[in-house]
Structures are given as C-alpha cells and as structure tokens.
Amino acid sequence: MKIALIDSGIGLLAAAAAVHRLRPDADLVLSSDPDGMPWGPRTTDDIVAHALACARAAAAHRPDALIVACNTASVHALAAIRAELEPGLPVVGTVPAIKPAALGGGPVAIWATPATTGSPYQRGLIRDFAAGVEVTEVPCPGLAEAVERADAAAIDAAVTAAAALTPPDVRAVVLGCTHYELVDERIRAAVRSRLLPSAPPVAFYGSATAVATQALRRVGAVPAPGAEPSGGLTVLLSGREESLEPAFLAYPEGRSLVAVGAARP
C-alpha cells in the first residue's frame, strides 16, 4: 500500500507520521513545494496551480490514496484535485476539527493563519458545526512560517502572542493549520499557562490522525500498528525527487519517518 501526501511545506509531516503509526508497512510519498511556498498569500488560481502540480507529481508514483495535508489547499484546490484524479485515485482533504471540539459546549478557540481566520470558509464551519457555542478565532501571524524554518525563537514568540488572544476559560483549542500540530506541545504549554485557576483541562484537536484514518478507509485498509515497518519513503520537492530537508528532521514526526526507509535517490 502506498499513501501520498501534499502540502506547501512540512505541514504534511503530522499526517505522514500518523499514517506511519497506523500502517508502518505502507510506502509514503511526500510532495511539497519549497519553490512556491507559502501558498496562503497567493490568489486562488495560484494555489490551485501549485497544489495541482504537487498532486500530479505525487500521482506519478502511483499511490493508492492522496492526502491533501494542508488546510489552505483543501479550501481552495481540493475540488480541482478531485476533479482531475478521482475516481482512479481517492483524494482526502483536511478540515479543522471544529465539529468534535464544539461537542463539549465551549468556549472553543480556533488557531489558524491570518488568511483563514475570519474567512467565509472558517465562518461556515463554525456556523455549521458550532452553532450556539462560544468560539474565538485566533490569528497566528508568522507561526506556520516559523515552524517551516524550525525557528524556535520565532515559534515561541508566535505561540505566546496567540495564547494571549485565547480566552482564559477556553475548553477546547482547534489547531487549524497542519503546521501547528508539529508544535502541539508548545501550544499546549502556552495555553495552559494562561488558564484560570478554576478552569477544567483543555482539549486540543488536530486533524492528522483523522485524515490518516480516512485515507486508509478510502482504500479499504484498516489500521495495523503492529505490522512490520517495511514501507519505503519518496520525497518530492517541487516535483524533484530529493532527500528529507534538514527542517523535516527538526520535529519528532519527521525523524520518525527516517525509519520508514532511505529517502530516494
């Protein structure tokens, strides 16, 4: 079994690591776009073009499923990717976990990029899945870019700024950008440091495990975390077959993939 993932950068690592945990025998194809990132500030047409290029590069390796492991690409390019590649190649998008976060009744905070915060897309998800729940949209300028560079000081500064905008009585925090899941522990610590003394524990919601599980479901596979870790790894950087970039290895999710197999060539 082979699962491909696309993103502008290293945000795909969280979902890739989740696939590896669930099916260590699966081959992985990681297709990112260092030459074209970031995608967020681009026009919709540009985002579609870049996301399609990444998807086509990944599809050339004949995967069984393709994960669009990027919130921005899922918003703007998922329909175009599906129109071109399905039904021959199942395509799974990434949606912020607002629905499960809202089930606890709130307050809920949604951490997202400035472009996504307040967007019609995110407001629509809030309307559809969190009606009647107190929701605070928290913009996180510079956080995804800092994660991409593995810049610890910039990550801490961006996380601290976003935590300051998060209500001190928050019950759930949605990580609305795949990059944020790579610094999940830093976000948890920053939010918890600002909670009211009487506040109950905060639940944190990412999308990586749900997306990985859905990809397996689409290809008729089931989780088998005890399977022999026999999968291989292919890394595509703006279509070029390369090795893992140093920033990938700055995170546990990236380092866990080194064991998947030697990145080609």
UniProtKB/TrEMBL annotation:
The keyword Isomerase applies. It comes from the Bacteria. Keywords: Isomerase. It holds the Pfam family Asp_Glu_race. PANTHER family: GLUTAMATE RACEMASE. This is Aspartate/glutamate racemase family protein. It comes from Streptomyces stramineus.
